[in-house]
Amino acid sequence: MPETPADGKASPGFKKNPDYHVGFEPCPRRLRVQFNGETIADTLAGRVLLESNHVPVYYFPRDDVRMDLLQPTGLSTFCPFKGEASYWTAAVGDRSAENAIWSYADPFTETRQIKDYLAFYWNKMDHWFEEDEEIFVHPRDPHKRVDVIASSRPVEVILGGETIARSSNAHFLFETGMPVRYYLPRGDVNFDLLTATDHSSRCPYKGIASYWSAEIGGQIFENIAWSYAEPIPECPKIKGLVCFFNENVDDIKVDGKSIDRVTTQWSDRYVAESLDGPEHIV
Fold first, then answer.
1. 256 FRET partner, CA 20 to 30 A, in 18, 98, 176, 250?
2. Fold of the domain spanning 12-135
3. Distance (Å, rounded) from C-alpha 30 to C-alpha 41?
4. 176 vs 1: CA distance, rounded Å
5. Measured distance CA(60)–CA(48) in Å, rounded
6. What is the mean pLDDT of each run of 10 residues along the chain (282 residues)?
7. Residue 190: CB atoms within 10 Å
8. Closest CA to 45 of 97, 111, 117
9. pTM of the model
10. Is domain 146-258 classified as CATH 3.40.50.10540?
């Protein structure tokens, strides 16, 4: 938590939760937001807000936002760490996005840096770009790592009492803040038990995932496994491999030993978040 000057307007949130983190870091990338064919924000001086329990959020200097395309609204919300936010509706041509943009005109002293910056609800905009590449879901956290490492350690996935996959050629995916994921060659997965679904999801660190459901002993496990047919260039090693939700299978064994069962936002939920959901990180 930042220090508060004696004459500052202190945040009540940090007083009650001193370990809560709100970082506001420079972003060296050109950032652009498009809505209904217009670029309504374009900056070389953007910032990324990194806040406990939230995905990263890009903030744009007011001077780099097309304020002529925004209409102020009467909505306001309160954050105990940042202050009171005011809102705008984006209106471009025949389309509008209500209360899609917010800003803190008079933030608390601890987060004073966010003053004069605006942020956009991701799913209310049409396209987001870092430099000339479109990005999806939310900004990538500059402090997050995703490492994919080949391993000859045997991996066995058990679901509904059946061994649905067994491999000694898996790739282990280590992602900051997430359980280890085991990506397996298709030839080592029993596809007789799997059926492709029309579900898909996006991950900003990996790309677009497609899914399979399993039917075993009359029980259906919906969207229990996924694969990235064309992962983003930064994560090529998982291309075409298959991964199962650790938290929703009976067991995963590595070197013959069961891995610890973890609890995540996907625990006991066989349907993963949709593209319109708040976040997808698998």
1. 176
2. 2.170.150
3. 10
4. 22
5. 9
6. 56 93 94 98 97 95 98 96 97 97 96 97 96 91 92 96 96 92 97 97 93 95 96 90 92 92 74 35 40
7. 15
8. 117
9. 0.74
10. no
